[in-house]
């Protein structure tokens, strides 16, 4: 008997086994079979219905986003898992078909009927013997055909009798070589492999058909996917409940901010939020508290400005009004009244300028820093101060070096100190202006020879509307307050020293840059 590669099984006297190099699963003895087609991929997940969109609850929106992401992850996981399991089922089906064909080839390779001890003389005998020795797997059917007619079937009863389907039998009988394919049946797709059988000396033609019901095999995959889906839904429900509680705790500080914003009014800005933790919500609470600090300070400055303006402007306005109401027709008296009115208007103008300076001191552009040369600034202060009054202006110690400050504001503060010194001295009195530079700070000062500032007044003269003892000025007492404000804007301070005579007021500023 002879054998042809990739052809029908032939029983041979020499015991040769028909084989194929293209079917390694058969160990070189099974005919080549086409690999199974991959199971169809799921291109898209089922579309969920339009979600409920709460309009007023950030907590609910956050929960919906979280649940949506979890659902998406669950669907993607199920699709990938199902596809992987289906491919494993297909591989298992192909392995089962290869195993059945391999066992049949091993039986045919012996060439001798183990019952009679004679050579096989008919393909039906070879097929019948194989059916008797084979134990079928679940969802598997094995048929024997002789001359295109069913000659046997492996028990038990399969889901669908392929031997009773004329079209299926005709398809199997028409195979000239080993063929692998699929058929659509009432129980789903059947994946089959047909192996033609020829026995030398016999004109009859046989065929072994091995089929596995693929869709029935895949049912276990659907069961696993349904179990995973059910477990995922339970986990989703649990995760959603925990997420709802967690979102409430996370958003509680935000709700505190909302309630605080509702309760806080212009008359009470003292409330602050409790800051817990170091996350973004805690940063929001800190930012909100900082905003309240600025608002409270701004409202306090506004009230202070209004109080100061109403307090200090009331007297000059009364004087102006009184002089205008009692103005005489006499030219001399009229001129005297106009002089008083103009003086009071000038004083009001200076007062308003000083109040505006103090009101603007908390603005971000009150100080515009730049590089300042200390010696040039000191000489510039002295040159401008000489025009203030008839005093013996002298240059004290002069420092050198650069520091970072707003030159115009520092110049304004120094000239204000010079005006204050003029107010406490008389013509010909000595006023010294000087400066000094240290490693971390610079000092600029005005030292007058006046009566000085008593120890009990030194803590108060930097406040608004406080005048030192024997001032010759009719100012409102805002000069040193302005100087102190400019110093604080530079992160510095105003220091009142205790020299042997007079008063020395020093502007102490840090060196920056």
Automatic annotation (TrEMBL):
Residue ranges annotated for the Histidine kinase domain, each copy included: 308-513
Domain HAMP: 248-300
Gene3D superfamilies xrefs: 1.10.287.130, 6.10.340.10, Histidine kinase-like ATPase, C-terminal domain
Protein name as annotated: histidine kinase
Primary localization class, coarse: membrane
Enzyme class per UniProt: transferase
Region feature (Disordered): 1-53
Gene Ontology MF, one: kinase activity
InterPro entries: HAMP_dom, HATPase_C_sf, HATPase_dom, His_kinase_dom, HisK_dim/P_dom, HisK_dim/P_sf, Sig_transdc_His_kin-like_C, TCS_sensor_his_kinase
Record bears the keyword Transferase: yes
Protein keywords: Kinase, Membrane, Phosphoprotein, Transferase, Transmembrane, Transmembrane helix, Two-component regulatory system
Organism expressing this protein natively: Fodinibacter luteus
